[in-house]
Design goal:
By secondary structure, the protein is an alpha/beta fold. The protein has 13 helices and eleven strands.
C-alpha cells in the first residue's frame, strides 16, 4: 500500500486504467518436481494480480521463494473495483495466477462471474471461521480484515472543547454540522462500506432517512479515499499540509498508526482517533484464477498468504488485520490503532441482492 492509506475507488468506467508490474523476490529452481509443480507447467514465476494497495516485505516474499522455488510477480491493476472488473473482462484467460483484493462488498460479483478455481488452502483451520464466507466451496481464501470507521482530528476537538462523535447518531447532531467528509459510495470502497454500515444500523428503510439528516447536517462527499483523507481531513499529515478544514473523515480503524509510523519525529500519541461506533467490517480474499498458467504456484501462494510469516507482515505494510488466529500484531499497530469489538456487518447475500439499489438510492439522496 502507499505510505498513507489505501485508495480503493470502485469506478467501473476506469477498467482501462494503466497497469503497473512489479517483480518481487528472487529466482528459484527450475525443477517443478522439487516444488510440487504440475505436469506441463515449467514456470517458476507465480503472478499475483492485485489492487494498488498490495504490499509485502521483500524478505517475506524471498522466504516464499526459498520455501517453494517460485518467484512472485505482482501485477497491480488500479483500485480494487477496477482490478476485479479487469479480471471479469479477461475471464478464462487471466493475466495472472492468483487474484488478491476482492472484499465482502464485491464478493458476489466475483463468485457469480466464475473467476476462481476452488482450492482449500493448507492451514485454513487456523483462519477465523467468521471470515470464511465461501467455506463450502473454497473458491476464495480470506486473507485480512479491516474496519471502515470515521476518524477524527484530536486537536480540533480539544481546541473546541467538543467531545468527538462516537456513533452514527452523533454524526447527525448539530454540534457536528459541516465537519464530516465521506467518499462516494458508488466510486469508493470505504464510501460503500460506510453506506453499508448505515444500512446495518438503521435498516433498509431507515438508512435513507439517516442520510437525509447527514445531508442536512452538511456532510461533504468526494470521489475517493485519497481526496477525502489527504486533502479534506484536517487530522492527516496531507490534510494539514493542504490546510484542510474537515475534522471528521471516513477512513479505517488502522489509520492512526499510519500517522505515527510515517511522522518524523514519531509522536507519542496518534493525532487522530476512531469513532468505534461507526465501523463496518471489511474482509479481503484471494483466489486461484480459473485458467491460471501456473496453478501449482498459485496454490502454493494461497497457502503462503495465510501462513504466519505473511500474516504477521501485513499490519505495517497494508495496515490490515490478519485472519490467522496465531498471528501476532506489532506493538505500534496495537498501541495506536483502534480495537473494534462490535463492527457492523451485512450478509453477503443481502449485499449481492441489494448493493446496486442501495447505491442508487444513496446517490439520488446525497449526490444528485
Amino acid at each position: 500500500m502507499s505510505t498513507t492509506r489505501r485508495t480503493r475507488q470502485l469506478a467501473a468506467s476506469a477498467v482501462a486504467a494503466a497497469l503497473g508490474v512489479t517483480a518481487l523476490a528472487g529466482c528459484g529452481s527450475s525443477d517443478d518436481s522439487a516444488t510440487g509443480g504440475t505436469k506441463g507447467s515449467g514456470s517458476k514465476t507465480v503472478t499475483l494480480v492485485s489492487h494498488d494497495s498490495f504490499n509485502a516485505s521483500k524478505d517475506v516474499l524471498k522466504e516464499f521463494t526459498e520455501e517453494t522455488g517460485y518467484t512472485v510477480k505482482v501485477l497491480k491493476s488500479g483500485d480494487a473495483g477496477v482490478a476485479l472488473n479487469q479480471e471479469i473482462l479477461t475471464k478464462g484467460s487471466p493475466r495472472g495466477d492468483v487474484f488478491f483484493g476482492v472484499d465482502n462488498t464485491l464478493l458476489s460479483r466475483a463468485l457469480d462471474s466464475g473467476l476462481f478455481t476452488p482450492y482449500e488452502a493448507k492451514g485454513l483451520g487456523r483462519v477465523a471461521a467468521d471470515t470464511r464466507l465461501d467455506a463450502d466451496q473454497h473458491r476464495v481464501t480470506p486473507v485480512d480484515t479491516g474496519d471502515i470507521c470515521v476518524n477524527y482530528d484530536k486537536k480540533y476537538f480539544a481546541d473546541k472543547k467538543l467531545a468527538p462523535p462516537q456513533s452514527f447518531d452523533d454524526l447527525a447532531k448539530p454540534a457536528y454540522k459541516n465537519l464530516l467528509v465521506t467518499e462516494n459510495a458508488g466510486t469508493s470502497s470505504p464510501g460503500l462500506g460506510f453506506l453499508l454500515g448505515t444500512v446495518a444500523t438503521y435498516g433498509e428503510k431507515g438508512y435513507q432517512d439517516y442520510w437525509k439528516k447527514l445531508k442536512d447536517n452538511g456532510v461533504k462527499v468526494v470521489d475517493g479515499w485519497e481526496q477525502a483523507y489527504n486533502e479534506e481531513f484536517s487530522g492527516s499529515a496531507g490534510g494539514r499540509k493542504a490546510k484542510a478544514d474537515r475534522p471528521l473523515v471516513v477512513s479505517y480503524a488502522s489509520s492512526p498508526p499510519v500517522e505515527v509510523l510515517y511522522a518524523k519525529p514519531q509522536p507519542k500519541t496518534a493525532p487522530t482517533g476512531v469513532a468505534t461506533g461507526t465501523c463496518f467490517r471489511q474482509i479481503e480474499f484471494a483466489g486461484l484464477l480459473k485458467g491460471a498458467k501456473n496453478e501449482a504456484g498459485g496454490k502454493a501462494l494461497l497457502d503462503f498468504l495465510i501462513g504466519k510469516s505473511f500474516q504477521e507482515d501485513m499490519p505495517l505494510n497494508m495496515f490490515v488485520n490478519p485472519v490467522a488466529k496465531d498471528a501476532k500484531l506489532p506493538e505500534l499497530f496495537t498501541k495506536f490503532g483502534a480495537t473494534v469489538d462490535r463492527p457492523t456487518t451485512v450478509a453477503p447475500d443481502l449485499i449481492a441482492k441489494n448493493r446496486e439499489q442501495w447505491v442508487q438510492s444513496w446517490s439520488s439522496l446525497v449526490v444528485k
